[in-house]
Amino acid sequence: MHKKSVKYQTIMQNRVTNLFNIEYPIIQAGMIWASGWKLASAVSNAGGLGLIGAGSMYPEVLRTHIQKSKAATSKPFGVNVPLLYPDIDQHIAIIIEEKVPVVFTSAGNPKTWTGILKDNGIKTVHVVSSSKFALKAQDAGCDAVVAEGFEAGGHNGREETTTMVLIPAVCSAVNIPVIAAGGIATGRQMLASMVLGAEGVQVGSRFVASDEASSHINFKEAVVRSAEGDTLLSLKQLTPVRLLKNKFFDQVQQAAAECADTDALKTLLGKGRAKKGMFEGNLEEGELEIGQVSALINSIKPAADIVKEIWNEFEISLQQPLK
User: Fold this and answer.
1) What is the pLDDT of residues 293-310, one digit of tens each?
2) How far apart are CA 36 and CA 64, in angstroms?
């Protein structure tokens, strides 16, 4: 009993919880069209770390979400900044002006902004899909990395390395804390990630199906209805992204089968496909980004309940004997 108690305390107060000054090592991913101030502040209030997803926001919209999140929680929260989107310099300037304590960057070179963010006292984490990029993030001065496996929704790595393989590989490669992501929605999956060496988890898809997520109810219900095999990594010629299968997905697959070039694929994508699907609820013509773990999600509930559910299952699983 004493050994279990010591182990429990070690996980409760590890490098991830200390880095972000949070109660549980559970981070809500900053997802486009889903992660506004309501979700981020709700997760932070529940003891995790909530992230505002800046990828779907104009700079001044981001400022509004940061200010509303400040008003809704006294606890730490952060912003996720995908480096492949425009207006990044404006986003960074606003983040610094508003004194956001934590920034997660993704889909780009961490060297570009990490130094500037850290010079302004901001804790910086980069999302990676390989040990090679994890080392680059460490060399850039990042405080931690998110190692995101092939199972994850949204933009993904071309390597197609699964979380089960990626986490121990990245943990062996770097000295900074590793946060596991990709296919994690339950406490048992969280425990498995920790056993593999991670010190925290980043959860995306499960929080899409939350009351506070800004995604459309049609999309949330589609996530709850989804089953194994209903998502697939697509658009590898441009930027790989895992999508829920629908009419738009079929059009993308057909174009790829016909060896469409990148310009043709960009034309097919057009503008606002992700917004049309995830924010406006058009389940046929929109782009629906979600992870494989959607097959395990069967309810829409408050974000605080999700955090509590994951942690309680983690705690119970930690104390159960191996069978």
Assistant:
1) 999 999 999 999 999 999
2) 10
